[in-house]
Amino acid sequence: MGDFDAATWVALYAPAATAREIVNRVHAETVKALGTPQARERFAAQGADVVAGTPEQLAAFLRSETVKWPRW
User: Which of 10, 50, 68, 69 has the smallest C-beta neighbourhood within 10 Å, fewest atoms?
Assistant: First the structure.
């Protein structure tokens, strides 16, 4: 299957009406936690890559996944 691309991913979400300051704070603290050597080692041991992008990058990724995986 040459063009088949599927991966498991995990993201952190908040309700749509969450204040931007809260989103920014949760994002900053999450990036900080994921950047620790302990977290990196733990995820690497499970074969996982940590991608701590911005909320906007996550939104763009979700849009691309929605196009790739339409409802059946």
Answer: 10
